[in-house]
Amino acid sequence: MWVYDKKTEYPINIKKSDPRMAKLILTQYGGPNGELAASLRYLSQRYAMPNKESKAILTDIGTEELAHFEMIGTMITQLVKDVPPKELERMGFGSIYAIHGKGVYPSDSNGVPFTAAYIESMSDPITNLNEDLAAEQKARSTYEFLINMADDPDVIEPLRFLREREVVHYQRFGEALRIVQEAMRRKKMYYKPNNLAGLAANPDMKDISENANIPNPINPNPISPLNIHNIPGPILPDTKQDNKKKQ
User: Fold this and answer.
1) pLDDT digits over 97-109, tens only?
2) What Å distances lie between residue 9 and 21, 62, 94, 162, 227, CA to CA?
3) Helices and strands per DSSP (H, E), number in the chain
4) Which residues pair with 107 in a beta bridge?
5) What domains are defined for the chain?
6) Cα 31-173-9 angle, rounded to 5 deg
């Protein structure tokens, strides 16, 4: 399915070590608003989407989140590279180093491991997409918090790029929500060629081809019988006569 380009989506070249910042950025690797949670959420939810357009949007964004996952891992690796253990401890990275060394492990900044409880995937596409909209806003806010705590341009620029992509994802999920809502409002109608409006059951009615301008009781505007999304509904029986007889 995927074609892997052996480079990060945005160039990362951090020259100055900073274990303190590495620990903070770790939350976007395996934290509740991080890239791993985002990619698993969207790539799982895509199966509940009702059409190809919305499914493609979730697949695209979920795939890009995996690229962001790679970017975060690369940033953490460069920030702790060649830093001695004593310095790691002094700068707040000691608790992470004691368990994982300098390995990049999916957890938040406090060392709490990633859990699938961070995400949700339901059969209701509207519910899923509203959660996705909120998730992108949370990720955007988290990147802004990280940018506020960073002072190295080599760290700030990739974080800014990631924040901007979260904004784009938010916009695309809004588009997906509109597409899904329109698809769910559109009523599917199935018919036989000589029974476009279900009139065969009524012996008083002729073939629909001879009655293309029969007014719809719900929509009186005549339409083309070739428009399958707005074909006339069945003619409703006249109940006034029955009511008079009962009286």
Assistant:
1) 999 999 999 999 9
2) 21, 14, 30, 10, 45
3) 9, 0
4) 113
5) 19-185 (1.20.1260.10), 188-247 (no CATH)
6) 60
Q: Which tokens is 101 given?
A: 């060394």
Tell me the CA distances in angstroms from 105 to 72, 185, 245, one per residue in order.
Answer: 11, 44, 80
Q: How far apart are CA 128 and CA 77, in angstroms?
A: 33
Neighbour count for residue 6 (Cβ, 10 Å): 4
Max CA pair span of the chain: 97
pLDDT digits (tens, 9 = 90+) for 156-170: 999 999 999 999 999
118 token code pair: 């961070």
With H, G, I as helix, E, B as strand and everything else as coil, classify residue 192. strand
Amino acid identity, position 30 = G
Residue 22's nearest CA partner among 133, 99, 141, 111 is 111
The dihedral of CA 42, 43, 48, 51: what is its sign?
positive
**Token match 């509207």: residue?**
126
Query: Residue 57's pLDDT is what?
Result: 97
Q: 125-161, pLDDT tens digit by residue?
A: 999 999 999 999 999 999 999 999 999 999 999 999 9
For residue 159, which amino acid is it?
A: L
